[in-house]
Amino acid sequence: MKQIGPAKLTSTQKLQRSLVVYSSIGILTISAIVAIASIVPLSQQLRQAEARNLQSALKTRTLVVEEFLSRAQDVAQQIAGRTRAREQVEAYNRGQINRDALVSAITPILTDALNQSEEVVGITRLDSSHRLAVQVGETIPEAFWSIPSANAQAAIVRGPIQIGQQSYLVVGTPILNGTMRVGTDVVLFRISSLQRVTSDYTGLGTTGETVLAAFRNGQVQLFFPLRNTSQTTQRDLNGAIEQAVTTQTAGLLNADRLRGDRAVIAYEPISNSNWGLAIAINSQELYATIDRQVIRVGIAIAILSLLGTGGIILLLRPLAGQAIVKTDELERQVQEKMNLLAEKTTALQTEQSKRSVLEAALQQMDELQASSKQVTQQARTVDLGAQQALGLTQQGAASVDRTLEGMQTLQTTVEAIAQHSQSLNLSAEQIGTITTLVFELANQTNMLALNAAVEAVRAGEKGKGFAVVAAEIRKLADQSRQSASRIDRLVGDIQKLVRTVTQATTEGNQTVQRGVDLAQSTAIAFNGVEKAIDEVVLSSQQIVLSTQQQASAIHQVVEAINLVKSEAEIRIP
């Protein structure tokens, strides 16, 4: 086997190293993507589970607080429901007994009730007018009395209140005889059991906080002090209590925050009260266990990925070396084949180039031969068309000559009509003159007849015959004058028509003159066209002869090119 030179060996080592490095990077990248795609959803689910556990712990404490409130209300209602004590209050209200008698009668009863409950530390009984009647145990200041409304049937809770250094809960219960209110019991309860609930930090680590608070008049009032005095935590807890009481819904604050020092707060309202309970714990502490598990899983996946990558690298190194050696051998063989193929390709391309040139020349000559044939045919067509145009031009020239002769004849006729119209106009003028004379003659005859009639009147009987003749002459004179008037009007109309005919004849004469001029110009143009077409006919005949000679020469060139092409095809292997 042929040895590989140093330069080639260096290139091979680089290729081998590149294959191993890129394969390792690809495997590590895929492992990281798989790890992230599996760890992130798992971490989210675990965090949500921790938040639900926090809500479950809050729910347990909420039930304890609600149980305490329910028990306190039940105890207060049991104290208010003792029959004998109620009857004494009714008697006191009616004035049947005085206050000392009332105190003596019901103090033992209330003391017994006080002793039966460890959480009850004081009982104050009020009459129907809410005045103090009896008080046992711890004194309840009047400012803290919790008195239900007039129509209330159930106990109401107030608290926490501060008496001395202790916090208490006040429960006000109406004393009822059927539906009639006879008095009120104000019972004071210890809230130490509630304090045990809030101070139970089981499962809340070192930053956990349980808060029980009331929300009234827009203010949050804590039952017990916080063990963590952080202002941020207290502000968040106040907001959670306000949210729980105002909306009467449970929920989480900052539950989706995965990092940072903010606390995760679960809150829930206490039923039938204006209280709220909340549990807060630092998010880092809450999710610390989950973070450690996620880190351990991530480390395990990273170690497995590294081990897998190392094993693959150990397998790839020898395989890559063998593949590179085989690739080098194959590359040399391919290079030899490529060189030989390139030589043959060059020779073949040279011959094919020559053949392509001959084919292109032959194709061009064929096209040229076809074009020559088309030119010959078109030249013949042009010659035939030119001869036809020459015949049509000669016919047009003859027609123009005949039109010119007719126009000249028409001009002579129009001139004769104009002369006759002028003669007619003169005759009409003479008739008008004669008509004027007749009209004057009729006027004079009428005057003579009028004078004759006057003279006949003067002659008397002798002149009657003359008067008749004068009257007839006068009638004839009137008729002559009317006839002369009509003749005068007719002569006027004739003169108008004569003038119109004369004007039309003059315009017709001018139009005929322009037609004559145009016919002469047309005749001259036809003569020029006839000469040009004669020249076109001669040129077309010359073109036909030239294209026939060109087609013959092209045919000889095509035969020569076909002979050269045949010889070239014989030489190509």
UniProtKB/TrEMBL annotation:
Keyword GTP-binding: no
GO term, biological process aspect, one: signal transduction
Domain of life: Bacteria
GO molecular function, one term: transmembrane signaling receptor activity
Pfam families hit by this protein: MCPsignal
Similarity field: Belongs to the methyl-accepting chemotaxis (MCP) protein family.
Transmembrane intervals: 20-42, 294-316
Keywords: Membrane, Transducer, Transmembrane, Transmembrane helix
A GO CC term assigned to this protein in UniProt: membrane
Keyword Membrane: yes
The protein, known as: Methyl-accepting transducer domain-containing protein
Record-linked Gene3D superfamilies: Methyl-accepting chemotaxis protein (1.10.287.950)
Segments forming domain Methyl-accepting transducer: 352-565
